[in-house]
Every structure is written in structure tokens, then in C-alpha cells.
Design a protein that fits this description.
Length: about 150
């Protein structure tokens, strides 16, 4: 079934796109939640005209996101925490702390975008992934030091 997305849907598309999905997904999830409307022969021309606007929006969004990815990857973060004598932290580093440090440097991301490879529980340098989009996931160097 073809549907026109009214809102951005993760892993499916941006608002204003016409996508093909299974009938069940459209009828049981997308349409009842107001995320999409069905496309039929009568309204297909109208939606095709709106797709051009979405293509322009995608290009601008991709440019802005790639610039933000470059800025993030070139910006190391240092977090000071209390720790034991052997270099182990009293508690693990949370995504919220990384978000706060990025906010201090003028970059706004949510804590759900911060992905750790493994839990950070001792001092040292770690690579942390910031998921900006499904394709752009820059890594940032996070260094943990003693307070």
C-alpha cells in the first residue's frame, strides 16, 4: 500500500514522502496514529507535487547534519569524576553527562543519540558514537580524568 507520510517516521521516511509499506503496517499503525494517509488515484498528483519540496528539505538537512558531524568528531570531551585510587569510577558515565558536555560547547543532542560501545567505568579515553541519522554516526573522543 502506498502512503503519504504526514510526520517523520524512524527508519521509514521524512514527512512529505510517499512510501510503499505493507497493508497491515499502514492500516494498523501509520494511519490510526495520524502518521500517514493512504494514497489513491485521486490524490496521487497532489502528493507527487509535495514530494519535490521534501527532496529540497532532505538536501538541506543532509548538508546541515554532515557539518554537525564534522564539528562533533573534531571536538574531544573531558569529564572529571571522583574515582578510587586504582582508577575505577564510583559509578559509570551516563549518556546524560556526554550530552551536558556537548551542550557546554554549543552542540545540542539528546541522550538517546549517545551510544556507548561498552560501559565506561574507569579512567582513560573512549570512543563514543553520536547517532545523528541512520547514515551519519560520528565518533567523539571522551577522556575520563580524576577530579
Amino acid at each position: 500500500m502506498k502512503v503519504f507520510l504526514k510526520k517523520d517516521v524512524e527508519k521509514l521516511g521524512l514527512a512529505g514522502e510517499m512510501v510503499k509499506v505493507s497493508d497491515g503496517y499502514a492500516l494498523n499503525f501509520l494511519i490510526p496514529k495520524g502518521l500517514a494517509v493512504p494514497v489513491n488515484a485521486h490524490n496521487e498528483k497532489y502528493f507527487k507535487a509535495h514530494e519535490r519540496v521534501v527532496e529540497n528539505r532532505k538536501a538541506v538537512l543532509a548538508t546541515q547534519t554532515s557539518m554537525l558531524a564534522e564539528k562533533i568528531s573534531s571536538m574531544p570531551i573531558t569529564i572529571k569524576r571522583k574515582m578510587h585510587d586504582d582508577g575505577k569510577l564510583y559509578g559509570a558515565i551516563s549518556p546524560h553527562e556526554v550530552v551536558d558536555e556537548l551542550a557546554k560547547k554549543g552542540i545540542s543532542v539528546s541522550k538517546s543519540q549517545v551510544l556507548f560501545g561498552k560501559s565506561i567505568k574507569e579512567k582513560g579515553s573512549y570512543d563514543v558514537t553520536i547517532k545523528l541519522s541512520s547514515r551519519l554516526q560520528p565518533k567523539i573522543k571522551v577522556t575520563i580524568v580524576s577530579e
